[in-house]
Amino acid sequence: MYSKIQQEKQQGFSRDAVARHLNLSWRTVDRYWDMTPAEYEEFSRQQYRSVLDKRGPVVMEWLERFPDLSAAQVQDWLQEHYEELYAERTVRNYVFNLRKQHGLKKTISKEREFFCTEELPPGQQLQADFGQYWAIRKGSSRIKLHLAAFILAHSRYKYVYWQTRPFNAVDFVCALESCFEAFGGIPQELVIDQDTLMTVSENNGDIIHTLEFEHCKNRHGFSIWLCRKADPESKGMVESCVKFVKYNFARNRYFYDLANWIKECHGWLQRTGNGKIHAETQKIPAEVFAIEKKHLKPVHSLVNHNPLTDMITTPVRKNNTIRYKTGRYSVPIGTYTRCKTVSLREIDEHLEIYDEEGKLLDKPALATSPGELVRNNNHGRDTSESINQLMVDAKSALGNTPLAEEFLTVIRKKKGRYIRDQLRVVMKVANSYDAEVIRLTLLACQESKVDSANDLRDFAEHIFRQKTVDEILTIPPVRPITDITNTQRCNFKVVQHQPESYMKLVPKGGN
Predict the structure, then answer these.
(1) pTM as predicted
(2) Closest residue by Cα to residue 252 from 67, 79, 391
């Protein structure tokens, strides 16, 4: 750089022209402009020292292994592993110089834009959202983790709940009540998405919640703000919180077991998530939360659902088997097609195997020798053939019409998991009503785009009742007695008897 500046100076270029040509700051050009070769040699011997030089090899290793590592993560890792706290600017400049010195480019993903909302009073709103993250293990394997993030809108105080399997309604209620317990209070309002874990239907404003979530809402007395697809960023805070957790805490962190992961996350929340100055409010969430906590409603009772968060996930192989430790275990045929991973939990010398929806598939005994295949003979039985036969029988019972075939195809597609139960209902309906009622019922189902056998049953019952009422109304009226003409009534004569006829019937001297 010094040689290039001196070369262009000798060619007659000005300082500004040299700065433009070499893409340098004018201050840098001015520093070297009048410097002699001897002065430059002395200047080059001077070494810039930083307080982070002693951690330079470690930081360099992190940057080489994880190209997307941010300076904020480096600062957090240094505090976590070495209990050394450095200024943000010091770490940021040091990381920048290392990248520039060694040509390490940072991979940057496309940023999402958010719309700011008004600041809310303390204790009013809690936002909740879900996330997933593929954590790395020692070696080359990965594990899919599921998280529920919560953030108080006023203080930006955060809470994160982790588990190794997808959330269901009970899991979310447990996570929500765990959040209330950690906060020591309940806000007035909960902002959530239209997720099937919490809501069944928006119902034009009269929201229908799932049974578990409805009980939780009534028990704690908070209101619900249900986000809609057309809404602006009404819960942008918690979306940013999920991103913050995934890319500041979870990214490039090794997963050993769930308990250790949760412990590390709690430490991160205390140290960074709630302990650092928030970029928007310029306040520390933990300090603001100390004030906001006074505005939260007290927690009266919590229900311990004891969810199975201590499970691990493993992929299903093409031959419908899984590996756990050194053993192999069979799963029902068709599992590989339905779900690529299952969740496992070891308990009482047995292995519980759950699918992605939390349904227990099998509970085999643990393998006793390396490489042993623990197989359930029932898993090899393909039940699809019997289902196909049930479909044929149901179609025949419904009249073997195109309408019947169309309806059965829809419910098999929509209710595949419960197709046997659905077909039982269809057979019961077909055997309970005549062909005309079934025909009208199938037409009504087609017009209403029904995809459930229960709706078919309801339509059939309604049409049968309506048909019965119509038949009663069409019965011809009974001919009234007043239809007899007056002439007929006048010609009607009553026989009259003489008194002597009755006297003969009375014996003499009798009473």
Answers:
(1) 0.49
(2) 67
